[in-house]
Amino acid sequence: MSLKTFKGGIHPVPPHEGKELSKDKPIKEILPEGELVFPLSQHIGAPAKPIVAVGDTVLRGQKIGEAGGFVSAPVYSSVSGTVKAIEPRRTATSDMVNSIVIENDGKYTEVEFNEVEDVNVLTKDEIIEKVKEAGVVGMGGAGFPTHVKLSPKDPKKIDYVIANCSECEPYLTSDYRAMIEEPEKLVEGMKIILKLFPNAKGVLGIENNKPDCIKKLSELCEHEGRIEVQPLATKYPEGGERQIIHAITGRDINSKKLPADAGCIVDNVATIMAIYDAVKLGKPVMDRIFTVTGDAVCEPRNFRIHIGTSFAELLKAAGGFIHEPEKMISGGPMMGFAMFTLDVPTTKTTSALLCLTNDEASKYETTACINCGRCVEACPERLVPSRLADYAEHDKKDMFEKWYGLECIECGSCSYGCPARRPLAQDIKTMKKIVLGEKKAAAAKAKAEAEKAKEEKKEG
Amino acid sequence: MEKEKKLIKVTSSPHVRDKVDTQKIMLCVIISLMPATVFGIVNFGIRAMFVLIISVASAVFFEWFYEKLLHKKSTINDLSAVVTGLLLGLNLPSSVPFWLPVVGSGFAIIVVKMLFGGLGQNFMNPALGARCFLIISFASLMNDYSDYPGFEDTFSGATPLATVKAGGQVDTMRMLLGNIPGTIGETSVIALLIGAIFLILMGIIDLSIPASYIITFSVFVLLFGGHGFDMNYLCAELCGGGLMLGAFYMATDYVTSPITPKGKIIYGILLGILTGIFRLFGNSAEGVSFAIIFGNLLVPLIERFTVPRAFGIEKAKKEDKKEAAK
């Protein structure tokens, strides 16, 4: 089988690959203690609405927040106990988010889950409804509600269902461990999604630095006519949505298009497994696989965690710090969020805690840009990051848009390779937010004015 | 007593960096120039070494001095001044008086580089800018190639290029090896190519500029050289003068070449045509230096017209045009 890939990207070289720290550590279930925090916004879209009150007793698997709209997802308790508070709490991205705090009684009394004997009897709508009810969202980090993804305008036009098994972020091993330990679940999950799209082929895109996964899953898919394994080159960001679509299908999409526009549905390993749990076992999203790693951590490990457990507790379970950390990151080193405290809860979308003794991002001083073009070579979106960063620094919004600044996927490849150590990705991300914010505001204003004019006409 | 706690650092992602920095890139360029440098010293004798040392030392001195004078942070550690000084030295004949490289380096560093804002801001290659300044100001000194041992018995004119221009024949093998008169660094094609291969393997330069430059130039010379398809003539044009040094080391100068992939090709083609025009129709047999500094001036324009289309945009644009046409 030939390797497929995309143009651009970077090869994170050791010590940055970092996967060896935790890749051979089997997933260990850990039980949380004390209070658990469930932010009501763990997804893209409207926050969930709390449906429990302070003092209520809840069970594991009980819905505590209902979806706040179509693009939204419900939130479930992962432990049994009593609701202690409903208040804003800090999350891993440092935002204050309204959250339900539950005091764990340590009994883990579960509600009854309705397992389906045979998923083949379910209709398409029933499958999507089950996914929606279970609160499944993109668990690779984006947190886009999965039921929305699974309901494109024309399901017949979808010809590829892509399982994003590339896990291209350095250090992260949760998807890898899940694939090694429960490959059947991934394949069964794929079969459920394929039921929704009669004309689609299932492709498992796996980076070739995981030969054991490729072997195991190829064996499993041997007799599955509709599913195949596609090895991908080991390169960051191979797992970017647009990049993996290009690698597997050769189709290109931009920021204004959805994967469905190119006939693709892309979900990552954890999400597909959550779909299986939701549809077959009737279980909502309560747990996830989580990696605690980095050179500051005593025993890098992979855990099956109860969502809502605090980062601090997971660090303790990994033996605490062996060296004093300089940086603590939620997620991987390329796109993760730096944290200043570990007293924040895990959510559906947090996949790792990475603690480094040496922060390279702040170690080097920025020097003059020498126009070397390494950022241009590295950019998977074929942008010119050095110019975009210039435009961002000088607040030239029109030029920023003209040079396609809004197409940036914020992968950080440009900053990684910059010999002048310029914070390219940071500048571009910031400007992107400003421009998008202004556009949103302008659109809202235009809409309001149009409505006002309409009303005046009516009155007139 | 409690150990002093390290502060937790919080920055925007990414949180890791590649090891390559400006200094390492410049070091690679210096290493890649070593074969040509060593060959030049062997070819032209110890005097060439003094010219090079003076050129490099004065370039570094002028950068340090300028920054000291203006109370700026010293940037001599990035080694870019060493590269400028070395390139300038390699572009000088070994016979020049020792004050000439000092004047050249001063012009390169202070006028071309620092006055425009230092590294990354100069619009013209400093070493070439200085060389052209010296050629115009001190023409006889800059065109004196008589320092070459055995000069008298091999060539009647100055350099092989001048010989070719005057209608004579040259020994291509000697030109490849570099046993010919010329500036210190430009004569040995083999030594220059060894360095260029090193630069390409290290990922410092890519082939788009040198390849489009050399190919365009070859085609131009074959078409308009008036010699038809004469390999000896073509080889003399390719190996002679500063073409190889210019194509691999000067035209690829990051700061003064386009950053866009398409722009690099256009820039290379432009240099090829300009060099051809200057060499065939100009007064001098040489043309590379002027072609490159002239090309440098057009870089902002080239970049403006070669903004790369972002990933996945192409199709959408065509549709837009169609819709607009409707």
Layout of SSEs?
The complex is a heterodimer of chains A (about 450) and B (about 325).
Chain A (H helix, E strand, L loop, with lengths): L26 E3 L5 E5 L9 E2 L6 E2 L4 E4 L8 E2 L4 E10 L5 E9 L19 H10 L12 H4 L10 E5 L9 H8 L1 H14 L4 E7 L3 H11 L5 E6 L8 H9 L14 E5 H13 L5 E7 L7 E6 L4 H7 L9 E4 L6 E3 L12 E5 L3 H4 L10 H5 L6 H9 L3 H6 L10 H5 L6 H36 L1
Parallel strand pairs in A: 1-14, 9-10, 9-12, 10-11, 13-17
Antiparallel strand pairs in A: 2-8, 3-5, 4-7, 5-6, 7-8, 13-14, 15-16, 15-17
Helix pairs in contact in A: 4-7, 11-14
Chain B lengths: L21 H23 L1 H24 L10 H11 L8 H15 L12 H12 L1 H4 L8 H4 L5 H6 L6 H6 L11 H13 L6 H17 L6 H9 L3 H8 L10 H21 L6 H18 L8 H12 L1
Helix pairs in contact in B: 1-2, 1-3, 1-10, 2-3, 2-4, 3-4, 3-5, 4-5, 5-15, 10-13, 11-13, 11-14, 14-15
Could you please describe the fold and organization of this structure?
The complex is a heterodimer of chains A (460) and B (326). By secondary structure, chain A is an alpha/beta fold. Among the domains of chain A are: 173 residues, 3-Layer(aba) Sandwich (Rossmann fold), CATH 3.40.50; 97 residues, no CATH class. Chain A has a six-stranded mixed beta sheet, sandwiched between helices. A four-stranded antiparallel beta sheet of chain A has the order 2-8-7-4, with no helix packed on it. In chain A, strands 11-10-9-12 form a four-stranded parallel beta sheet, with helices on both faces. In chain A, helix 4 packs across helix 7 and helix 11 packs across helix 14. The radius of gyration of chain A is 22 Å and the shape is globular. In chain A, 55% of the residues are buried. By secondary structure, chain B is mostly helical. Chain B has one domain: Ammonium transporter AmtB like domains (Ammonium transporter fold, Orthogonal Bundle). In chain B, helix 5 packs across helix 15. The termini of chain B are far apart. The chains are: A alpha/beta (460), B mainly alpha (326). Chains A and B meet through strand 15, strand 16, helix 9, helix 13 and helix 14 of A and helix 1 and helix 16 of B.
